[in-house]
Amino acid sequence: MRLSVIAAAAALALAGCMPEPDPAEGELTEATAPPQVAEIEAVMEDSAAGWNAGDMNRFLAIYSRSPQASFVGSGGLLRGVEAMEERYREAYDWSRPDPSGRGVLTFETEDFRPLGDRHALYIGRYVLTYPDDREPATGLTSLVFAREENGWKIIADHSS
Fold first, then answer.
1. Residue whose C-alpha is closest to residue 19's, from 85, 104, 114
2. What DSSP line would sit under 74-124, residue for residue?
3. pLDDT at residue number 35
4. Shortest CA distance to 128 belongs to which of 83, 96, 93, 86?
5. Cα separation of 126 and 62, whole Å?
6. pLDDT above 70 covers what percent of the chain?
7. What is the CATH number of the domain that holds 52?
8. What was the pLDDT predicted at 25?
9. Does residue 13 lie within any of the structural domains?
């Protein structure tokens, strides 16, 4: 009996810590977006600009240089930027700056959650459009960002 009273008290205490549901939850506007979202969207845009210019270093600059930085995709788990670079070089044509072989990359923010002062969860849609008649390639990406001394960096990427 005493254990169930303690469990009930703990559940009530945790429930009090949960944020109130927002009636417009899921809708990010300039007025409701946390301040970090603009900073992270800016680094996402810069990474996409690197992709679109054929600049692998600029594209990958968004990732933490920690050897624990991870990428999860259809090919499994990769750790470290070097492994990510190898994956992108094998999967896409980086032989010239023209992105027609790689597609033109854009991101659309779907959700954003601050995870304290130094971390954030970004959920977005990536879209690769092609100049020919191919259908755009698109999917979802869940990115965990950490604020490092040189800005916001991805420490975990799960893209599908």
1. 114
2. TTEEEESHHHHHHHHHHHS--SSS-TTTT-EEEEEEEEEEE-SSSEEEEEE
3. 82
4. 93
5. 15
6. 79
7. 3.10.450.50
8. 52
9. no
Contact call for residues 102 and 51 (beta carbons, < 8 A): yes
- By CB atoms closer than 10 A (0-12, 13-18, 19+), residue 72 is middle
- Cβ atoms of residues 138 and 52 within 8 Å: no
Residue type for 21, please? P
Mean pLDDT of 30-45: 83
The 8-class DSSP code of residue 133 comes to S
CA distance 41 to 123: 11
Specify if 134 maps to a domain. Answer: yes
Domain count, the chain: 1
> Is 3 domain-assigned?
no
Domain around 43: 35-159
Least Cα distance to 75 among 63, 83, 64 occurs for 83
pLDDT at 95: 85
Tokens 């946390």 identify what position?
34
The tens digit of pLDDT for each residue in 94-136 reads 888 888 789 999 999 999 999 999 999 999 999 999 988 899 9
